[in-house]
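new request in #modeling-help
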Amino acid sequence: MTTLTLRTKRRRSALRTLAFLSPWLIGFAVFFAYPMISTVYFSFMHYDGFKPPTWSGTKNWTYVFESYPFFWPALRNTLWLVVIMVTLRVLFGLGIGMLITKIKTGTGVFRTLFYLPYLAPPVAATMAFAFLLNPGTGPVNSILEKTGIPAPGWFNDPDWSKPALTLMFLWGVGDLMVIFMAALLDVPKEQYEAAELDGASAWQRFRFVTLPNISPIIMFAVVTGVIAAMQCYTQPLVAGKVASGVIQGAGTMFEPGYPEHSTLTLPQLVYNLGFQRFDYGSACVVALVLFALSMAFTALLMRRRGGLIQAGD
Amino acid sequence: MSARMPEVVRKAAFALTASTALLLSTTACTGQAASGASDDASKEQTITFWHAWSAPNEVKAVKALVAGFEKAHPNIHVNVVGNMTDDKINQALRAGGSKAPDVISSFTTNNVGKFCSSGALIDLNPFFKKSGIDPNTTFPKAMNEYTQYQLDRCAVPLLGDAYGLYYNKTAFEKAGISSPPKTWSEFEADAKKLTIPQGDTYKQLGFMPDYHGWETTTEHYMGQFSPTYFDKSGKSTVATDPAVTDALELQKKLVDDLGGFTKLEKFRSGLGDEWGPKHPFQTGQVAMQLDGEWRLGMALATKPDFEIGVAPLPVADDQADQYGKGYITGTIAGIAATSKKQNAAWEFVKYVTTDTDAVVGFSNAIHNVPSTLDALKSPKLTYDPRFKTFLDIAANPNSTTSPASVNGGVYLTTLQQLGYDYESGRLTDLSAGLKKAAAQIDTDIAQAK
């Protein structure tokens, strides 16, 4: 009798726990588990979105890795953005945050000035940058030419298109600046005072006091930056379209990453394969590559030795 | 002192990464197959028509077209839904349902191959036969071609676009040129005469030959050389068809002769965009322009300070007898396989695409080229006399189009990529490049099948 009561209590307790967990469980199943399983499933199927899917083995994987001409350029560009652009954004965001926390007057004004660009809609911001950096008529190149500095082709030059994109992302660094400012202001002042008493230089104070205190925030900035860079779609697409001059409406033929594939990113391929080529299987392969890359980068950054999180953190 | 990153935060970061990456894949991987139905077209009913037009005058024209149909068929009412993009149309064709369209129209002619091969749009051949209409004698040849794939006619032309040559008559007179060029040799000479350099740029450029010069795409150039693109077995012919080589070489020669790729690209990057009032032909910066019939109205609206001339595009020197032809494409209409009212839908499609007065009225309102041979000759057509050039191009049996393919316009993208490489000088061995392009096209098609 006692055992039965205990069992009933445990079952009720389990059901209650399950009921409380159910919103998350349902969300996880619908928005994570099902898409994950579907993506893996469709990556092995021939599926055009109209006819029922049919088994195609590793054909889609072989096609993407060996025959789809845009995969490797897009992968290279995406990795470039992940490594270069994310690093520069974090450094720039931290630098601006440190500067603004140091200045005595006008903090509010500078904080607003640096944060405002982050609020600009991506399409509008990209179009504005394409206008500013237009090699023929843009004001930036006009100034450079007047001062005798060689003017780059920016979005029209395959060597400069990604640096131009990076420049634009640095302009919109307000989000990182704000979180770095909060983290920097949260570092206990007594630690700086103690370090000063011990004769620590400015660099040593930064290295041994500031950095350890804000390392979780740097970690957050890098991980979210890597994810954002992996998903980078709108800005490179708009920049390429505006610079190429081919801004068409419906029926636009896919132009992969003008100029010379240099602004092509993996998310653009997901759209191209799935919605323009009706090859959902191959689109799923690229999506899984993106997933694997995101996981790999996150694991690399979070490993206990050699990553951004140190042992004991 | 070191900061702590709890285990739970680490796991949350993993979950965040996984979720965001997978959101992309979620959108790419859903859908189901379609099915057909039979119905009585004489019954009182409502069908749904999705189209992509969005400008106020276009929406008004569609309403007038539909009103004409409802007057002729009082028992069939049409629920019109405008501004529908291809993605939405494709999704609706996949999913079906009570709110899905019975009839769709799309600007993306390239998708006909996929619509037909997948069965998303039904084959209209039996309907044409039942109605006693012969598509071969109803529609211009090129339009007839781009609305079917491997004898499956799943689409019908619903107005078309014809490409021709716009030229600045005032600049022509100043340069001592009396008439528009008829062959590419004449064209090249005229383009050079019309080009006025200014430092490292141009005061006036005779012609912008770069593939990014808006409508100067590979298929529009090639249309003047009548390429085949595919053989009877469906294999790419771009490596063996001299028309493709000729077109690519012509463009490259124009690029080199008019100042070189780098100089032309720098000039182009400073020009106005294709759809704005600062289009370089309209501003007089470029004296000749390859463009569609819509440019005439757009150019006249900006009140340019020169006289606009219109002519067919030149042809190859050894095809002078075919002068007058051009590249043709256009909007297509079709009936969804998921529609339960296909007979009623056919009545609507038949009316809007084959009724001469309906087609003429729609053409007059939208300023596109009519898509039936009778409408092209109709005295009810109202147009600027120069627009007649495009009507003639559309009716010309030598006019060309790019054939439907199972994976949309992928083969055109491949060719365009080769064109970019060739015009910029990155590709020097054209023959090898074309062989590689042909192999890529065949691989892409095999992947899509």
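bot summary: Residues 76-279 of chain A form a domain with the MetI-like fold fold (CATH 1.10.3720.10).
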